[in-house]
Amino acid sequence: MRLALRLARRGRTSPNPMVGAVVVKDGVVAGQGFHPKAGEPHAEVLALRRAGEQASGAALYVTLEPCCHFGRTPPCVDTVIESGVSRVVAAMTDPNPKVAGRGLAALRKAGIEVFVGVLEREARALNEAYIKYITTGFPLVTLKMAMSLDGKIATHTGESRWVSGEQSRCLAHRLRSKADAVVVGAGAALADDPQLTARHGRPKWQPARIIVDESARISPDARIFQSDGGPAIIATTRSAAEADVRKLEAAGSRILVVDEKDGLVDLAALFRSLAELGMIDILLEGGGELNAGALEARLVDKVVVFVAPKIIGGRAAKTPVEGRGTATMAGALRLTDLKARRCGEDVMITARPEYSIRAEG
């Protein structure tokens, strides 16, 4: 199962789950496979195809319950049954209501021995974005921040390159390469003019690049339109001037019109729209107002913070979470599942908002 989990991580499957499968005959791996991307053969099919005749009487290890419905591909359970395997070991059941135990029931009905729950925790962590999407309709949102020891993301003049060290920035780019989309606010985009690409480690994947800009004020000459990367998307509202919208379209941007809330882009509506477009794993990179809005709306599932051993100071210097803030310490958002480790000269902290943990049960 550990091999199946490692295989699963090779796929770029959104909005499908990442799945790996291994066929074992007489203690030897006879076939293995992973789901490469949506619309292509599933992991079980590839593993059984490679095992060939050795699949008969073998055990199939798979990180997720085999599907039993028609989607872009036929049901996997039919292929599993036809292969002649005698046992199926699944890490977890599929939370998709179209499956949800039906695939395993079909295997048992066909006389195949079925076991469920091997390395389930690891399998759920692997597909946490898929699980969030399939059970709520929303993407998994990771809030990434880099700040000084005194909580600043830039100097009072607006200079922000670079708060964190080189190793932290490399890791941040790897986070981008694993996400379906990177989201920033118009303020941060205007101040930093970012490319929002994944540039370290020769990534094979470039995320969609999304600027939340309720009034379409981003310049058509911004670097996001000049650099190679994933599609550039401006999330705006009906209040944006049509002439400004047309200029951004001409620059190569896709325009996504989203409902307003208090004069701003409704972030809940935006994230749901992104999930409907197949973007189920979102990396939120701020700035402070956008971060505050996402946290206040309880849309953030995970927090990744790079803390640099620097003190910037300045009452006008920006912080990673702004907005109005809480009036009392009792009202502060608490984080749990806290982990910290060195990342070059910095400290990387990961955590989850308490509301996210409660939502997971």
Question: Quick gist of this model?
Answer:
Helices cover 30% and strands 24% of the residues. It is built from 13 helices and 16 strands.
Q: How would you describe what is shown here?
A:
- The structure is a single chain.
- The protein is α/β, with parallel strands linked by helices and 361 residues long.
- The mean pLDDT is 93.
- It has helices spanning 2-8, 43-51, 76-83, 102-109, 120-126, 128-136, 166-178, 186-192, 223-226, 242-250, 267-276, 288-296, 354-360; strands at 20-25, 28-34, 59-62, 87-90, 113-116, 140-148, 181-185, 208-212, 232-236, 254-257, 260-261, 264-265, 281-284, 302-308, 335-343, 346-353.
- The strands form three sheets. Strands 10-9-8-7-13-6-14-16-15 form a nine-stranded mixed β-sheet, sandwiched between helices. Strands 2-1-3-4-5 form a five-stranded mixed β-sheet. Strands 11-12 form a two-stranded antiparallel ribbon.
- Helix 3 packs parallel to helix 4.
Reconstruct the topology from this structure.
Blueprint: H1 2-8, E1 20-25, E2 28-34, H2 43-51, E3 59-62, H3 76-83, E4 87-90, H4 102-109, E5 113-116, H5 120-126, H6 128-136, E6 140-148, H7 166-178, E7 181-185, H8 186-192, E8 208-212, H9 223-226, E9 232-236, H10 242-250, E10 254-257, E11 260-261, E12 264-265, H11 267-276, E13 281-284, H12 288-296, E14 302-308, E15 335-343, E16 346-353, H13 354-360
Parallel strand pairs: 3-4, 4-5, 6-13, 6-14, 7-8, 7-13, 8-9, 9-10
Antiparallel strand pairs: 1-2, 1-3, 11-12, 14-16, 15-16
Helix pairs in contact: 3-4
